Amino acid sequence: MSSSSSSFRIIVQKVDSAKLLVDNENEYIKMDRGMVVYVCFLKGADDTCIPKITKYILKSKIYSGAESEQKTDLFSLINSDEQWSLMIIPQASLSGKVKSNRIQYHNQPKKDDSELLYESLVNELKNLVEENIEERRIIYDGVFGNRQGLEVISSGPYSHFYEN
Q: Of 70, 103, 144, 151, whose CB count within 10 A is highest?
């Protein structure tokens, strides 16, 4: 699908641990093993893209746990003994496009529209994932509009890019 008709871009990265700055100064949230998801909404995006994103993140059989190299979905790993987590980070810079040796961001929607979509995505993921698991936090989310200071420890490059 061409980027002109796309409504979102995401990058999913497997990590051993991640730490995200949430107050632009010194407050961090930290998670252990799981996936970091960078999400960007594009012009024309609306609520109909939220189920598509959640399906990509939770149901794509691209993950493998510590016990097996067999591919499975993140939803299964979150509910397994391995206790994976998920960190969602708003990343408007993914809307950039190189033109004449410069990056242009003409495909960014209004900030308020993106923020509402981001909040809807986070809420949808929390509803789908955390409804039956009360003993631990699973979804960690960045603050929209903040500087996204991030520290990641990963045992290898493992990233996937989705656009729709």
A: 144
Q: What tokens were used for 133?
A: 């698991």
- Hey, what are 29's tokens? 């949230």
**Per-residue model confidence as pLDDT tens digits over 34-60:** 899 999 999 999 999 999 999 999 988
Q: Identify which of 124, 129, 141 has the alpha carbon closest to the alpha carbon of residue 48.
A: 124
Helices (H), 3-110: 49-59, 74-78
Q: Residue 142 has what DSSP assignment?
A: P
Residues whose CB is less than 8 angstroms from the CB of residue 134 and which lie 6 or more positions away in sequence, other chains included: none
pLDDT band at 64 (very low <50, low <70, confident <90, very high): low
The predicted-structure confidence for 74-97, as pLDDT tens digits, reads as follows: 888 777 777 789 999 999 999 998
Kindly give, in sequence order, each residue whose CB lies less than 8 Å from that of residue 158, ignoring residues fewer than 6 positions away.
13, 14
Q: Label residue 94 left, alpha or beta by phi (over 0 means left) and psi (-120 to 50 means alpha).
A: alpha
Q: Specify whether the backbone of 163 is left (phi greater than 0), alpha (psi in -120 to 50) or beta.
A: beta
